Structure formats: structure tokens, C-alpha cells
Amino acid sequence: MLAAPGRIEITRIARRAPGPGEVRVRLEGCGVCASNLTPWAGPDWMHFPTEPGAMGHEGWGVVEALGDGVQGLAEGDRVATLFQHSYAEADTGPAEQVVRLPAVLDGQPFPGEPLGCAMNIFRRSDIAPGQDVAIIGIGFLGALLTRLASQAGARVIAIGRRPYALDLARRMGAAETIPMADHQAIIDRVRDLTGGAFCPRVIEAAGAQWPLDLAAELCGVRGRLVIAGYHQDGPRQVNMQLWNWRGLDVVNAHERDPAEYLRGMREAVAAVVAGRLDPLPLYTHRFPLEQLGAALDATRDRPDGFLKALVLP
Fold it and tell me: What is the pTM of this model?
């Protein structure tokens, strides 16, 4: 439980029996999401302590109990979940919010929610072969999108803060990398790379005001600006004159419909099984559940070589 800003407490409670239409999953692990960082900092609207396991929404594990009426699942099935209390040893939720994992993935971590998020954002980006695609923010999500876009035949221009992230982007298929340092220098470089046309697709995956401003500047006329960053710390301002003048299509690519989440998760399973995606090298840090606080700190501070933390019960 998040007991107070910046303080985790471990407690023992009874495992909840699944109700009708629910399953209980014995968790093998849960990814740590950057969206946890605002609650971790303790904003005014937070109430403490949180519910047990709260904030954890990237879980995977093995079905250990079935509620009445559940069909198509059995005890022992390995699944990724969309449950919301997975910083724990077990989590219970609707059977319709799990995706079965094939045996070929046995033993591999599979935080289905962020992998599915990448697939959904990629689909909504509508990337075609030969396009110039700028991706701003090379974290876990940006790295996955770099791989997907380059495999689709696009020329990816990856823009990130850290040398480690830019090296990773090159390994994931980026044709060009640019340090995210000087605003005008980035614009000038992309202008040069694209012959003055800028990019028909730009994906903002940083979740902050400056990268959002930069993303619009890098979009060409009638380009598509895809907002993949999670903007949760307050309102944003946009250069509506620029958006209007260039006739940009702006896509907020986060999904809130569980059916779309699950669609992306199934596509992620298929992509990993087929070898289109290999997320294993992106899970750079692993922590026991008792060190969830350290995992959240690492997600916030991003030490050299950090990309994605997993918490393992």
C-alpha cells in the first residue's frame, strides 16, 4: 500500500475469492508505469493509504481460481491482465480483462498493458513505408514504437535526452538520432533531413509541454501529430496558429475502452510470438515487491541504463 507520499508499506490481507465472472491470478510480476509517479509524489488530490496493490496495472501470472460462470479459462492458464491492484502476490478481476499467453512465452515477463498500448498507438499512427517518422521521447514506449515504425518501412528519426536511449533507438531501427537539447537545433536538423518538408508522422511520447511544442514544429503540412505521452500533471498550451496553418491531424492515442486495450494486448502477444517485437532487453531493472519504492524512484530518476522496471512478488 502507498501509505504516504514516497512511502510504501507491505501488509498481508486475505486473498479475495473471485466473484461471478471473475478470476484470481497468482502474479508473476507487474511492470512499473511512469503514470505512478504523480501518486508517488503525493498530490493534493491523493488519499492515503491507497487500496492494497493499487497503482499496479501491468500484471501477468497464472490463473489460480475461477468465479462462477467463467468460460474459456482454466486454473493454470498463464495470462496478462488489465487489473488495477497488481502490486501484490495476487489480483482478482473480470475474466474478460485477461489475455491468455501461449506456451512459447512461458518463463518470459509479459506486462501486457504497456505492450498493448504500443500496438494501439502504432495502429492509430497510420504509418506507411517510406514515411519520415519523428519519435520524441525514447523510453520503453518510444523504443517499442521505433521498432514497429522501422519494421513498417518508415525512416525513424528518434529524439531523446539520454545517450543510452539514443543508442537503444539505433538498435531498435532508428535511421537518425538527435539529442533532445536545443529546440531550434532539432527543428533545423529535421528540416535538413526531410528536405524542408518535415515529417508526415510525429509521435510525442514524453508527456511534457516542451516535447509537445516540438512535436508540432516537426509535423509537415497535413501531417499527423500522435500524442502518446501521458499528460497528467495539468493543462497544456498548444500553438493553435501552427496547428491550424499546417492543417494537422491530432490523435490522442491513449485508449480507455477495455476492448481496445485487450485488442492491443492480443496484437502484442502475436508480435512477440512472431518475432516482430523482442521486449526482453527493454526490461532493464527488476525489484522484489518489498522494494517497490526503489523501483518507483528509479522510474522517476532514470539512472544510466534504465528503461523499464518490473516488480516481482
Answer: 0.96
